[in-house]
Amino acid sequence: MSRLLKLFGLLAVAVFTVNGFAQLANPQWARWSVMSDPTLWDNRVQYGATGYSYYPVNGDTAYSTALRAQADFALAQSQAAEANARAAAANEEARRQYLENKAQYNEMRRQQRAAAEAKRAAEREEMKARAANRPAPKKPTEVYPRLSSDQLDPITGTIHWPETLMTAAYMEDRTSVEAALKEQAEHGPNARTASIIYSAARSMRTNLSKDMNRIGFEAYSANRKFLNSLALEGDHAMEALK
């Protein structure tokens, strides 16, 4: 009986020895050996019943893994907040620079407008000064002299017309001038006779301009000068009484 028990003991030792070598050679057995001893856990990929999975590293627990995940999340939040803060600071700096540039531009435009207005004011003052120093314009009677005594006798009112103005085109105006000169010689000059003479002389100048090509420039200039003085005969006569 004792021999039989010894035999069974030797068989058991042999079986467990073979089984141990099989566990070392077989990854499936190795997996269960690692699972049974947490001190052997590492980050190797083991194949279990549900497929490949990672086992905790260096004895980490689910609690410590959760704490590490929370720390990583907090770090990511902090980095995102820092990035947002930098972006906000950059936006604020850009806005400040924009407002500063706008203020500088507005100030430059204000100075330009002020300078332009000052220049215009100086030009106006200069024009006023020149106008004040400018001699007064001459009166028409100073520009166009009175007809000579050979052309008009102011005492009798007799006028000697140039040959060009003796045509039929000037007859009506000549008649008006002669009547006004006669009245002026008899009763003295006045505004009414001066106006009649002026209007008739202007009408004769219009007709003379139409005849310039026919009579030539020389004749036109001489007759125009005669009519300019005739138009102011009433004014000359009234000034002579002052």
Overall shape = rod-shaped
Number of domains: 3
Number of strands: 4
The main sheet orders its strands as: 1-2
Supply Rg: 64 Å
State the helical fraction.
over 70%
- Largest sheet at a glance? 2 strands, antiparallel
Brief characterization of the structure:
By secondary structure, this protein is mostly helical. The protein folds into three domains: 56 residues, no CATH class; 74 residues; 96 residues.
Your description of this structure?
The chain folds into 3 domains: 2-57, no CATH class; 61-134; 145-240. Helices cover 72% and strands 5% of the residues. It has helices spanning 2-25, 27-36, 62-133, 140-143, 171-187, 191-210, 212-215, 217-231, 233-240, and strands spanning 45-48, 51-54, 152-153, 158-159. The longest helix has 72 residues, at 62-133. It has 242 residues and is mostly helical. Helix 5 (171-187) runs antiparallel to helix 6. It is built from 9 helices and 4 strands; from the N terminus they run ααββααββααααα. Strand 3 and strand 4 form a beta hairpin. The strands form 2 sheets. Strands 1-2 form a two-stranded antiparallel sheet.
